[in-house]
Each structure stands twice: as C-alpha cells, then as structure tokens.
Design brief:
The chain is an alpha/beta fold and 601 residues long. Among the domains are: 2-85, 2-Layer Sandwich (Gyrase A, domain 2), CATH 3.30.1360; 112-250 and 313-403, HUPs (Rossmann fold, 3-Layer(aba) Sandwich), CATH 3.40.50. 52% of the residues lie in helices and 12% in strands. The protein contains 23 helices and 16 strands. The chain has helices at 2-16, 21-26, 42-50, 54-61, 87-100, 128-146, 162-173, 182-199, 201-216, 219-242, 253-259, 261-270, 313-324, 372-384, 388-392, 421-435, 442-462, 474-477, 485-502, 516-526, 528-538, 542-561, 570-593, and strands at 28-30, 38-40, 71-77, 80-85, 112-116, 150-157, 249-252, 275-276, 286-289, 301-305, 334-339, 345-349, 362-368, 394-399, 402-403, 470-471. The longest helix is centred in the middle third of the chain and has 24 residues, at 219-242. The two termini are 33 Å apart. The chain binds one RNA strand of 78 nucleotides through helix 3, strand 10, helix 13, helix 14 and helix 19.
RNA sequence: GGGCCCGUAGCGCAGCCUGGAUAGCGCGGCAUCCUCCUAAGAUGUAGGCCGUGGGUUCAAAUCCCACCGGGCCCGCCA
C-alpha cells in the first residue's frame, strides 16, 4: 500500500519534472519528524543536473504536483518536498493489512534455500556462542521463508571428529553413568578427557585409535559412536526446542562419507578446478591453486585432499556444499529423528526413506567469521567448476562470537560451564517469574515466564548485528525492560487485551480523521513488507527486531495517549481496526524474530 | 607480509550498503505521571570534535586513502 502510494507520488513528480519515474521513486524516503510522511529529494537530483539551487527547484516544482487522493498535503521545506498522506490512505492501508492477515508482507515464490546452522560438535551442551549462531540461523530461516523462499534448515553433525572419539574414549573408560541432561554430562566428561590427553600419551594414542576405527567404519565402534552422538544430539535439541529453534534435517558426516564422498572427490578430481601436486611440500595432495585471486596469501595453495587420500575439512565441506546445490547424484536415506514442538518432524540421515532435501537455489551458511577464508575457497572452487550462478548465491553469513568479559567460551577447557544455553534460559525464566505481579496461578506464571524468558534472550541475541562481537553480561542479555524482548511482548499483550474486551473489530470508517499517533502507527505498519524484503535479501534479521521495537514504541505512545474502548463515535471503530492490525503485524514481526507471543503478561 | 571485522553519550547498541533537514534508542542519573484498555509502561531533562588525519562532494557518522586501538584469519586441525 505504501509502495503504491510512493509509486503514485513518483508518477506525479515524473510528470511535472525531467525525472524518470524510477528516479523519482528512489528520491522518496520516510520524512523525518514533523515534516509530513514521505519526503522527496528530487530537487537535489534536478539541481545537480540543471546547476540550480535545490531549494528554488523544490519551490517551483511542488505547486505543480497533482499526486493522488492518498496525498492530502504537499509542502516545501528548503530543498525537500514533503507529502502528507490523507486519512483516506490510512483507512485503505488498515483495510489491506487486516485483509492480508498472516500473509501480510509475504514475498513472491523464490525457489529453495538451504540454511545451515549451528553445527555444534555432538559431545557437549550448547553454550551462549552456539546459541547466537542458532538464533541467527533460525531467524534467517524464518525471514527467508516469509520472503517467499522454500527454506530447509539443515544441521551438520560432525560425528567423525576427534572430539567424538575423545568422548567415546571417556564413555568407555571413565564410566558411563550419565546423570542430569546428557549433553551436559558428556561435555564435562569431554573436558576431563581433553585434560588427560594433554598429559597422558596413552590416552591420546587410544583416542586416536578410536578415531581411526570410527573413520574406517569399524562396525562395533561406529555403532557405539553413532549411538553416543545421537543421544547427545537429542539432548542438545531439547535446548533447540526450548528456544523455538527448528530444523528440517540433520546430516551426519558419517553418512556424507558413505553416500556422496567418493562421487564428490571424483567430480573434483576430474575437473580442472583442482590438481594433483607431483612434487614439493604438497606432493601427493589435490590442491586448489589460489594464486590468481588470493595473491598475498602466505601459501596460495589450499589442500583439499591429503596425500593419504582423505579430505581436509574444507574438502569435505566443499563436497557437502556441492550436494546442497544439487551437483551430486548421491541421495541420503532419512529417518524420522525428533518430533518438534512446531509439529514438524526433524529428519536425520542414516535411515531408509528418500526425501527431497537438497538441490537448493541458494545456500546460506551461518558460520563464525573465522571461517571467511575457507568459505571463500569453496566459492572460488564453485566458480572454477563453472557454477557461477551458484557461487553468487553461496552465502557465508559470518558472525562474531560471544565472549565472556574475561575470557572466551571454550568447549575443551570447559569455560562454558555456567553459560550453557540451558542455564541462560533457566536464569532468564527465573528472573521473569520474579517480576510477575498480577494474580496468576502457578501454572500461568510458569507459562508467562517461559515466553518472557525465552523472548528476552532471543531478542537480545538477535538485535546486535552479526559482525559485532557480543560480550556476554547477564544484566544485558536478560534485560526485561526498555529495548528488550519483553517490551515487545508487553505491547503485544496490551493490544490483545483490548481486542479481547472489545469483541469484533470492524474496519475503520472511511470518513474518520486519523490523529498524529494513529497515523504514525499505520505508516510504520505499512513499512513491514519492505522490511521483510530487505531483511531477507541482506540476511539481517536484526532489521526486523529493530522494526518490532520501533513499532511497539509507537504503539505504546499511542496507547498512553488515546483510549480505545471508551473512545467516542468513529474513533472507537478506527482504533480497534488499528489495534487489530498492530496485533497482527507485530505478531508476524515477532514470529520472524522468533520472539514468542505470550498469551498474557 | 597480506586479508576481513569492530571503534557512535559513563555503559550496551541502531544508523553506514543506497551521502542530505535538529545523529536515534536502551541502561544508568535527575524530575514528573498509576480511581482510567495491567507502570515489564508514558513524559521531560542532562549527557556526543560519530577513533584520528587527509580527500571526494553544494553536502560526509555514511564514499575513498592513510594511520591508531581491539578482535579474527592466511594448517596434509576441525
């Protein structure tokens, strides 16, 4: 609706000036406080072209504009031409938002996108850092989906790493009587094994031997390792679910090795993207010669296949990415793995059922920024394999890490203890519960605190841009006031409460004259579709958390200044329509950020 | 040696892609507002050479260059 209004204004400007409609359209921006609703910078453009004073041009141009019934006022302020939208526009806009309901801001169909996150090693609980990755990945999935992509959220389970071998060693030698949540218990045991490995050569040798057996597919050891990792992953996913983070499929590395590895290696070797090094320090390895594009690297050759025939991490990842992009014929067999609270089953490889997963038009990998270089290598190989289009849609969504004020979060040394995703949520819920005043049953309190506690964390983790390091402080992460998740939830609940008491909401009467606070609220709701598109195309869900906050702020102000239920005449109907659409839009926006909607607060 | 990211109020952040009207927000400080759709709220106020120095431009927090601080990367580890 706002788009159409801008289109109309652009048309009018174009008709009255030398600007093309497209230029006129891009000269439009939201007007700043007190200057109407939409501002045009067209005069600047014309001024530089005609070598005239922009203010003068604006003054001449404005009176000749005959926009549309949606514009009620055209004013000049220096070089700016400011448009004030009419009440007619506002009532039309409200009607449209209400009509579209859950589909408001929904984009056109765009193909399939695979989003990969968080790929945590399956031998420890998630800590705050993994949580940031997962929240980012889940939010991006939600946003892309609303923007029109068919999204598959995929988790890569590295069940062949040394970490798993170490945990298996611990399981076999340090006792296997888990207590408490399995991933926590296993994680603590891993810390112990890692410590021993540093000092005890025997432990190291035995763990390495186990790793070899796992990699070779030794029937007994592989089975044990798989059981261990699946059990750990199941425990990790309880955390996943507690934060409303969901997946389509879990791909185990052991299944990658079994199913597509040889084919992938073969494809690479037969291409001219990588070559077999005959001599020098990399003799016997298959490498990508990065010399041309990565000139200043200390070593411009990246090894993908070692001289013993095994693939490096980047080599394996490359093959997996080729599968995601539909470049390999091999297909995984799946089994239902976990029933998720959103009603959808998460599948895991290692079963017998075929599934149409993979073969994506776009790949988004949510991985720490320390992996920028290997991710670039993969993109470069895609290019050399002739997949230019795919390389363009191979996105590394790089993010910085969560650090503690004094140290880093480390799986091996156990600094995560006290900062696991589970402990964060528990503490957050506890703080939320403490704050609940009103008369609620214990059960209701628990429900509210769950939603608020979860919302506080999801919001605080998503609101900072991914490229910024996040120093974890309890007070900030779990903030319940001001710019925080609960603030948004509170605004939502207030709107809901009004609607519950009001009965059926009707459309705004066409003749109603909207006041300043009402206009601001509608205008902001009109921006939602544009925001969804922008957040999706830039892979920045924090744009939507910021939007949600701003929208809630506008609503809170409206709420404190104008009554709805006991408003007189047309105002009641108009405001109810306004509140109803606010509840819809904020609800949508919050669900895209993964902030749960509480029933009451 | 080279590359990437960050640097905006006491603290935590948004804005930078796509340059324009007084640089926004939260916490903390101070001062107000609950007989009224729940105050997890609203209002006001103090607080900023937008890291530094150059350049481009009619116009720079925003674009370009150099530098300074902090983090990360350049492995036959993952």
């Amino acid at each position: 609706m706002l788009f159409r209004a801008k289109k109309e204004i652009a048309k009018a400007i174009s008709r009255a000036s030398a600007l093309a409609e497209g230029e006129a359209f891009s000269s439009l921006e939201p007007a700043k406080g007190g200057f109407g609703d939409i501002a045009s910078k067209a005069a600047f453009l014309l001024a530089s072209r005609e070598k005239k004073n922009p203010a003068q041009i604006a003054a001449e141009l404005a009176p000749r504009l005959k926009p549309h019934e949606w514009v009620e006022k055209t004013e000049v302020a220096g070089p700016y031409i400011n448009f004030t939208l009419s009440s007619r526009f506002y009532s039309d806009a409200l009607r449209e938002i209400l009509k579209k309901g859950k589909n408001y801001g929904k984009g056109n169909k765009k193909g399939k996108a695979i989003v990969e996150f968080p790929s945590v090693n399956p031998n420890k609980p998630w800590h705050a850092g993994h949580l940031r990755n997962a929240i980012l990945g889940d939010s991006v999935s939600r946003v892309l989906s609303h923007a029109g992509w068919n999204v598959e959220s995929i988790d890569y389970i590295d069940d062949l790493g040394l970490q798993v071998a170490q945990s298996l060693w611990g399981h076999m030698n340090l006792g296997n009587r888990p207590s408490g949540k399995f991933d926590h218990w296993l994680g603590m045991q891993y810390v112990e094994v890692a410590k021993r490995m540093e000092t005890d050569a025997k432990v190291q040798a035995e763990a390495r031997a186990l790793l070899k057996k796992i990699e070779e597919g030794d029937p007994e050891i592989s089975k044990k390792a798989r059981e261990l990792t699946e059990r750990c992953v199941s425990a990790q996913y309880e955390t996943d679910f507690a934060y409303s983070i969901f997946h389509t499929a879990l791909i185990f590395e052991s299944d990658i090795v079994r199913t597509i590895f040889q084919e992938g290696i073969g494809l690479l070797k037969s291409s001219n993207a990588i070559i077999l090094e005959k001599e020098g320090k990399n003799a016997g390895c298959w490498v990508v010669k990065l010399g041309e594009k990565f000139q200043k690297l200390q070593d411009p050759d990246k090894i993908l296949v070692r001289s013993d025939g095994t693939a490096t991490y980047t080599g394996k990842d490359l093959i997996f990415q080729l599968w995601k992009l539909g470049k390999l014929k091999g297909r995984f067999g799946y089994k239902p793995f976990l029933k998720q609270p959103n009603g959808k089953t998460a599948f895991a490889t290692g079963g017998k059922n075929p599934k149409p997963f993979g073969n994506a038009d776009m790949v988004v990998n949510v991985i720490g920024s320390e992996q920028i270089y290997p991710q670039e290598v993969i993109r470069e190989v895609l290019l050399r394999l002739g997949h230019a289009k795919e390389a363009g849609r191979y996105i590394h969504l790089a993010h910085e890490h969560v650090v503690l004020p004094e140290e880093k979060l480390s799986g091996r040394s156990g600094t995560w203890k006290g900062f696991t995703a589970d402990e964060l949520l528990e503490e957050s819920v506890r703080r939320a519960k403490e704050k609940i005043s009103g008369e609620f049953t214990e059960d209701e309190k628990e429900k509210i605190a769950r939603a608020v506690g979860e919302g506080a964390i999801r919001y605080s983790f998503i609101r900072t841009t991914p490229e910024k390091k996040l120093v974890f402080k309890w007070e900030e992460a779990l903030s319940l006031e001001g710019n925080s998740g609960p603030y948004l939830q509170y605004a939502y609940v207030r709107a809901r409460k009004i609607l519950e008491k009001a009965g059926r909401a009707k459309a705004a009467p066409a003749s109603y004259q909207f006041n300043a606070e009402e206009r601001k609220l509608v205008l902001e709701m009109c921006m939602f579709p544009e925001l969804v598109e922008k957040a999706a195309s830039s892979f920045r869900p924090h744009l939507l958390s910021e939007y949600s906050y701003s929208l809630s702020e506008t609503f809170s102000k409206f709420y404190s200044m104008h009554h709805v239920l006991n408003a007189e005449g047309g105002a009641r109907g108009a405001r109810l329509a306004l509140v109803k659409s606010f509840e819809q839009v904020l609800g949508l926006s919050l669900s895209l950020c993964g902030v749960p909607l509480p029933g009451r607060m």
